[in-house]
Structure formats: C-alpha cells, structure tokens
Design brief:
The protein is an alpha+beta fold. Helices cover about 20% and strands about 35% of the residues. Strands 3, 4, 5, 8, 9, 10, 11 and 12 form an 8-stranded antiparallel sheet that branches. The protein has a two-stranded antiparallel ribbon with strand order 1-2. The longest helix is centred in the N-terminal third of the chain and has 31 residues, at about 50-80. The radius of gyration is 36 Å and the shape is elongated.
C-alpha cells in the first residue's frame, strides 16, 4: 500500500494513567479506573463542590470590594479641604481673593489666576438707575473677550483648616481672545476667574469664581482702551 502523503497515526493503542498508573486506551482523556484527567485539566481538576465554593468566594470578594471602595472614597472625601472663594477686589491691574477653608485638611493655592472678561459694544449700558444697579451683558452685546493673567506676590500659599486667607495678585499680562463665540440662547454672560487648588494627596482641583456685574462695569473702559499688556512690557 502506498502510504505517501497519508498522515500517520502516532497515537498509541494504550497508555499508563498519570494518576493511578493503570493501563487505559491511548486516546482517553480521562482514566476509567480513577477518574483522573490525562490532559491539562489534571492541573486544575475542580469538582462541582470546589467550583461552587470558588464561585461563592469570588462573589463575596466582589461584594466586599464595592464596600471597601465606598469606604475609601468616603474617608478621603471627608478629609479633603473644602474651600469657599470670593473676589474681594478686581481692577485692570490688581486682584484680591478671599479663601476660607471649611474642610478638615490643608489646601495649597496655586500662584496664578486667569480671568476672562467680556467687553461690550460701545453704546451698550450695563448700569441702571444712575449706577445703583448693574447687569451682565447679553451674548449679542459682546464684541470681545479679554484674558487677564495674574500672579500672587507669594507662591503656593497654604490655607489651614478652619481658617481664611486673603491673597493679593498683580497683573502679569492681558490679551484679547481670538475667535470667541458665545451661545446665543444664554440669557447673559458673566466674567469669571479661575484658580487651582491642591489637597494634601496632591490632587488638583479647578475652581471658578464669577466676576460681579459691578466689577465688570468698571473694567470695560480700561480694557477696551488697552486690551493688550504683555509680561515683557511690565
């Protein structure tokens, strides 16, 4: 018989069980005498009871992990700083912010602050009743937006728990934003300032503070007359 091109069958007629050493058929994957597996399953031979216990253990671990994660989050959240911020003073060259830490840990204040101030078109009046009341502009009343960059006189100041701190900033530079678009469905546009805080774990938090309509009103003329001041000019 021509055996050329035919795959030879190398499986022995019989073999020895790896568990009990009994003679079993060569192709057998499980011993008929002891029930031991002959392939890779002999290394992970779980019975039904063992498998059920393993599944139950994994279920308990999964349930505990959710609870541990919740406890971890609650612990660190409770010990995070909680800082209340307000702008005390703002003009075209200076800024003062009051920080009050009502949390349980210290907070580190970044040395830089960015403010975004909308500039209205000429002829738009933001004051009412002889400067007794002020308002924010509508989107269609704005012709430009000025970014003001401030830096503090002392770098990275720390606010202790249950304490307040007034930080003074000086103007570093300012410049008009390019291609500014405002959502027309918004009733009014307010200015704002952005400052960064860090907690004792090194996590960074971005904080925004609205600029009052009063401050916005008095910033219009100086920023319109000189919208750009670069750091190298100071």
């Amino acid at each position: 018989m021509n055996e050329k091109g035919r795959k030879s069958d190398s499986t022995p007629a019989s073999k020895t069980c790896v568990a009990c050493a009994s003679e079993i058929p060569g192709p057998a994957k499980k011993c008929v005498h002891c029930g031991g597996y002959q392939n890779w399953r002999r290394y992970v031979d779980f019975g039904n009871t063992s498998l059920a216990l393993l599944i139950a253990l994994l279920t308990v671990i999964g349930s505990l992990s959710d609870k541990l994660l919740l406890l971890y989050t609650e612990f660190f959240s409770a010990n995070n700083p909680s800082v209340v911020k307000s702008i005390r003073f703002l003009d075209d060259k200076r800024l003062t912010i009051i920080f009050s830490n009502i949390g349980k840990s210290r907070a580190l204040v970044d040395s830089g602050v960015l403010c975004r101030i909308p500039i209205v078109k000429r002829g738009i009046e933001l004051a009412r009743s002889n400067l007794a009341e002020f308002r924010n502009p509508r989107p269609t009343e704005i012709e430009a937006s000025i970014v003001m960059s401030f830096t503090s006189l002392s770098r990275n100041q720390i606010i202790e728990p249950k304490s307040s701190l007034a930080i003074e900033y000086k103007l570093l530079e300012r410049f008009p934003e390019k291609d500014v678009a405002f959502r027309l469905e918004v009733q009014e546009i307010s200015g704002y300032c952005h400052v960064g805080l860090r907690d004792i774990y090194g996590e960074h938090h971005s904080e925004f503070m609205p600029v009052s309509a009063l401050n916005l009103y008095f910033l219009q003329e100086p920023l319109r007359n000189k919208p750009t001041i670069r750091a190298r000019e100071k």
